[in-house]
From TrEMBL:
Keywords from the named record: DNA recombination, DNA-binding, Transposable element, Transposition
Family stated for the protein in its record: Belongs to the transposase mutator family.
The keyword DNA-binding is annotated on this UniProt entry: yes
GO process terms (BP): DNA transposition
Its job: Required for the transposition of the insertion element.
Gene Ontology molecular function: DNA binding; transposase activity
The protein, known as: Mutator family transposase
Pfam families named among the record's database cross-references: Transposase_mut (PF00872)
Length: 381
């Protein structure tokens, strides 16, 4: 590594202690001296030096502005006659600034608003960064997120798939609109849970879900046997169309909420215990027996709850056909709900996304970092 001897003048030393930009002026003078030392080393001759080893001649300097953490620097980059001066100084600086950009991206992914990111960066760098500048820097995530979100799924089969959606507020054409972010998570044959993909739909309609499922299949999603979700009508209809032959497991957590909403308040505690016993039955035969007992006992006092149970019984107990070791994690969408909580924690900071690309960038980067994880409770299916 080259070593340079730097001499500082008195004015620079005074600036260091007397002015706000003292550190910046010091760094500026040091770097300019480094540039002069490097051009001397490259030409193998000092200014006006006569030597047989000289490789060229100086041709003045050109100003170069560099924004750093200590402020804005004006460097005088040497020019070489009949040649080009080369230095690693700016390459090293660019690597350092790339680390800063990555730190900014990380802050945004972790839920820090672009306004706060701009203020933090200003404190670190000694120069102002606007919210729009930070947003532009974060757009460097787009090709990375796009490549991940459209990757091929052919490497594995996914017998178990969890799907859910959450509503986001997005500004479009100067109006704030509610849009559905649809997310699919799959459990592959090796026991790994993996985020399969994310898509932004106009709503949770059947058409939006069909487009989402068709997109997953176009990326070679295969081997789907059981799909776990809530009972949104558009979602269920799309499943029946796009994944014919697979079993739908209705989320038991959502089902229990719907059933208790249809139950008189005085009976809710007793109804919960009885229905919980049905869902936790060791096999389908026992579950049907407990269901029939429940219907007989509560037909008069809680008719609406009885109707909800009878209408949803087959879908909410589909998991009972599987071995015990699969049931706990496959009977609800709680894993996806936990994922949604992480998204909501960041979405609450932003509140309203400025465009449709922004939520894909933020949510996609978050999901990439979470994905994949090992679920040791599953064995090979």
């Amino acid at each position: 590594m080259a070593q340079y001897q730097i001499t500082l003048n008195n004015d620079t030393l005074k600036d260091l202690f007397q002015r706000d930009r003292g550190v910046a002026k010091l760094v500026e003078q040091v770097l300019n001296r480094v540039l002069q030392a490097q051009v001397t080393e490259q030409l193998k001759a000092a200014p006006y030096e006569r030597t047989d080893e000289r490789q060229g001649y100086r041709n003045g300097t050109v100003p170069h502005t560099l924004t750093t953490r200590v402020g804005r620097l004006i460097l005088r980059v040497p020019r070489v006659r009949n040649g080009e001066f080369s230095t690693e100084l700016f390459a090293r600086y660019q690597r350092s600034e790339q680390a800063l950009v990555l730190a900014q991206m990380e802050m945004v992914i972790n839920g820090v608003s672009t306004h706060k990111v701009a203020k933090i960066t200003e404190e670190l760098c000694g120069t102002e960064f606007s919210k729009s500048t930070v947003s532009e820097l974060c757009k460097r995530l787009d090709p990375i997120v796009h490549a991940w979100n459209n990757r091929s799924l052919r490497e594995h089969q996914y017998p178990f798939v969890f799907v859910d959606a959450l509503v986001l507020r997005i500004r479009e054409n100067d109006r704030v609109r509610a849009r559905a972010a649809m997310i699919a998570t799959g459990l592959n044959e090796e026991g790994y849970r993996e985020v399969l993909g994310l898509m932004l739909g106009d709503s949770e309609s059947e058409a939006s879900w069909r487009e989402f499922f068709s997109w997953l299949k176009s990326r070679d999603l295969r081997g789907v046997d059981i799909v776990v979700s809530d009972s949104h009508s558009g979602l269920v209809k799309a499943l029946q169309t796009e994944f014919q032959g697979c079993t739908w497991q209705r989320c038991q957590t959502h089902f229990m909420r719907n059933l208790l909403d249809a139950t008189p308040k005085a009976l809710q505690e007793e109804v919960y215990k009885r229905v919980r016993a049905i869902l936790d039955a060791p096999d389908m035969k026992t579950a049907r027996m407990l269901k029939n007992d429940f219907v007989e006992e509560f037909a008069d006092n809680a008719p609406k709850a009885v109707q909800v149970l009878e209408d949803g019984f087959d879908d909410v107990t589909a998991v009972l056909a599987l071995p015990d070791r699969y049931r706990e994690r496959l009977r609800t969408t709680n894993g996806v709900e936990r994922l949604n909580e992480e998204i909501r924690r960041r979405e609450r900071v932003i509140r309203i996304f400025p465009n449709r690309e922004s939520p894909i960038r933020l949510l996609g980067a978050l999901l990439m970092r979470i994905n994949p994880c090992r679920l040791n409770t599953y064995s090979r299916y």
